[in-house]
Amino acid sequence: MTQKFSVVLYVWQKDFPAWVKQALDSVFSNTVKPTEVIVMVDGPVSKDIQAVIDEASKNDAIRVLSHPVPMLRAVALAFAIKQCQYDLIAIQGADSISLPNRFERQLAYFNEHPETAVLGGYAQEMDSKNELLPTAICEVPESEKEIKTCLQNHSPFIYRTVMFKKQAILDAGNYKDFPNLEDEYLWVRVIGKGYKTANLTSVIANIHSIDAYEQMVLALPHFQMKRELFSTMRQMGMIGSFTYYRLVCTAFIKYLILPNWFRRVFHLYDAQA
Known about the structure:
Elements (H helix, E strand, L loop, with lengths): L5 E7 L4 H12 L7 E7 L4 H10 L5 E6 L5 H11 L4 E5 L3 E3 L3 H11 L3 E11 L5 E7 L5 H7 L12 E3 H6 L10 H11 L3 E13 L3 H4 L3 H17 L5 H17 L2 H13 L1
Parallel strand pairs: 1-2, 1-4, 2-3, 6-9
Antiparallel strand pairs: 4-8, 5-9, 6-7, 6-8
């Protein structure tokens, strides 16, 4: 398989040096190697992270883009995507390990389904020692209908597993700053533009387990971003007015009425749905 493609790895100051190295190692341990890897360094990083990046940059396939002041993840990703030379782009998480056949499988799917614009897959969680958690497999919907329905609750793709077509992402407006929901906001606009999406129904990456609820912004701002997301879905014809108001009411109750402990349970249920 000789199809050329890019990989984007986003790195910032809170990443762990060992994880960044493991992420890069997994990219180049794949059965199909990327033509280029863009390491997007968002703001200043520790000496240890910089040392990992400097060592990796000896590989001619790697291009390092650095910004002295943090741009935020969505803005940095949008910039990196524009710099990619090839239409197919895979996202590699700095806290994830791509399985050796990830890129081969995704490229094969794109060849068999050229109408597809975004392709993700399952991921398996691992602990800080890289030990796999056998029961912690993050599943995502497969069919286009299931993916659209999933968007009403949470992201239908695991960010660290996606491969997509650059032109489709740019046509949808690329990543935009949309706190805590930047991925969902991008997928809504891509699907709203009529692009086809899918997920492989098997594990293609291992990811470090992080309690996303602890990373969540304050309840009111999160509700406001959810409401704007649902408004975008309605404007693009993905949901009707009845569904819009139902989703807004549900989000209002979830983020502004329920006590914190119950909201946590609600969030964990959503994450596993």
